[in-house]
Amino acid sequence: MDLSLLLQDEFEKRRRKNPRYSLRAFANSLNIDAGSLARVMSGQRVVKDATARQLMTGLQIPNEHQILVLSHLEASRRKKKEQDEMSFLATSSIEEAVDKLNIYILISLESGPFCQKRKLSPAGPAS
User: From CA 13, how far away is CA 7, in angstroms rounded?
Assistant: First the structure.
């Protein structure tokens, strides 16, 4: 069970009863900041277990369903952590490749055909 979907469903249910029902009123009924609630509902924020329990208590979700929601949240946290780690590894690999490429370019410039030493004669540089 996805907490954000539960919140969205409950919010829509309350709005059907009262079309003027606002997100701020919904947040107040759940004792949470409206901005935080909006991020949770949109899936931009994965809440901690304590916050999830607070929200589910406000929604009057039975304990057996709360366990399912909490396990879903844990899976979401693991997935986000793995994505963050993969993103970091990809960035690190790119940075390492660029560093190596820069070193190879510098070595080539110092010792390759780009850097031929000119012979100097008393009259000046040789042509």
Answer: 10
DSSP three-state, residue 13? helix
Within 13 A of 36's CA, how many CA atoms are on the CB side? 12
pTM, whole model, 2 decimals? Answer: 0.61
Spans in the chain with pLDDT lower than 70: 89, 112-127
Bridge partners of residue 103, in order along the sequence:
none
pLDDT at res. 80: 80
Kindly list the distances between the CA atom of residue 12 and the CA atoms of 6, 33, 92, 112, in Å, as whole numbers in the listed order: 10, 18, 43, 69
Backbone region of residue 56 per phi and psi (left: phi > 0; alpha: psi in -120 to 50; beta: other values) = alpha
CA 58 to chain centre: 28
Are 83 and 77 in contact by the 8 Å Cβ rule? The answer is no
